[in-house]
Description:
globular, 5 strands, 3 helices
Amino acid sequence: MATVVFTPNLRRHVECPTEEVAGATVRAVLAAVFATNPRLRTYVLDDQGALRHHMNVFIDGEQIADRERLSDPVRPASEVYVMQALSGGS
């Protein structure tokens, strides 16, 4: 099963511990996480089911290409990182 990790910044807003879930695509993996944590969905996906602009997902260190359909493949041993993009300055 794939390991899904959420960054500490996202965990400040909603409880989302690291989970191991099955799924062949990013969408399937996230759906498995959202099944047990539906509140998290609104932080990660927009109303159309696409990745929100301020969110990034990486599979084994590579940023996903399909932010709308979330069709990037996930292997059973993959590590999926979900992070909130941060900005700021002085």
